[in-house]
Amino acid sequence: MACALEGLSVIECGPNIAASYASKLMADLGADIIKVESPAGDPARTLGPFPGGKADPEASGTFLYLNSNKQGVTLALDKPKGRAVLDRLLADADVFIQDYPPGEAEALGLTYQRIREANPRLIMASITPFGLSGPYRGFKAYDLTVASAGGWTAVNGWPGRPDMPPLRAFGQQTAYQAGVNAAVAVMGAAFQQLKTSRGQHIEVSAQECIVSILELTFVMWSYMEVPAVRWGQRPIHPIDFFECKDGWIFVLCLEEHQWKSFLDMMGNPEWGEWEVFANPFVRASNWDALKPLIQEWVSEWTVDDLYRAAQTKRIPFAPVSTMADLLNSQHLKARGFFAEIGHPRTGDLKYPGAPYKLSGTPWELRTPAPRLGQHNEPVLGGRLGLSPEEMASLRKDGVVA
Questions:
Q1: Count of domains forming the chain
Q2: Looking at residue 182, what is its pLDDT?
Q3: CA triple 42-44-45, angle to 5 deg
Q4: 203, HSE (Cβ side, Cα atoms, 13 Å)
Q5: Which parts of the chain register pLDDT below 70?
Q6: Residue 339 backbone phi and psi in degrees, to 5
Q7: Which residues contact 162 (CB under 8 A, 6 or more apart)?
Q8: Which of 271, 293, 302, 381 has a 20 to 30 A CA-CA distance from 23?
Q9: Is the full-model pTM beyond 0.90?
């Protein structure tokens, strides 16, 4: 069965996760991805996690996840010979995705104005922390910088505790958001490319990717001049996390009939009739008194037993899934979400699959992430036609590993 993006030729390079994830999304749908690493290797190779905790650039969990279904070559783009080889790869490619900061990209000659001269139909996506214009264009940034600049950390943290600092989400979430947006934009440009045979330049600002997903925060300010921050008082309750015997569960009783059902499940305790808990608004204003009463009862349950008991009463509780819970989830197993693929260094590994299903051109995990320089010969020698002597010269000059 054909893949959805079969025949789409993509070149990817850069030191960050955003470009890797953008091209991964396309690789998993069948696009032909050539990943260009420096001879020292992609920085993701150092991130881990590693089997047994022992660092191994060929066994980094992060790198293996981001780069399955790709071919990998090495090129030193800071050397003229390396840039010349990249230009040859780009000359007949459909898409080029890179995530160097603007100053570094320009120093390496990775500008759309220069590259499009050799291939006017090329789509180029430049993923940067703050875009290619504006006073922050030249700023470098880490995930924490971008998350804070985008307003994410301000709305994330410990609800009801204004004394606690803002909080970033785990991992490199801003890079993944930027990668998703880059992939979507590339697909739109590729559709236009099919109709016109012309390329275009896509710039993705990671800060703007974060600003765009802050949901109702802007509406609340523009409509009501109310800042939506995580330390604000919730107007109604209960909406909170509680600790069970073996984990955490989220309790949500937005509607009064849900609260009545919850009280019934708790055996209709005497305090449920107290005036200070009479409606959702006074429950919110007296939450410091109500929460310990609920917590005492919840602590006698396991997460699964409480979740199933709440389900029978149509109360929208939600277990807080751990990574082990997800890997062992019967629902995800039934849907075939996780996929396994072998790797010569690590053996069989289980990877997260795609959050979508295409009936005609399905998602597929075909090949493991490439070892460093694994496809130098088939891509540079076979695809570009470099002779053995030219390959040897590139190795001698440190252009390829």
A1: 2
A2: 98
A3: 75
A4: 17
A5: 1, 160, 226-229, 231-233
A6: -125, 150
A7: 231
A8: 381
A9: yes
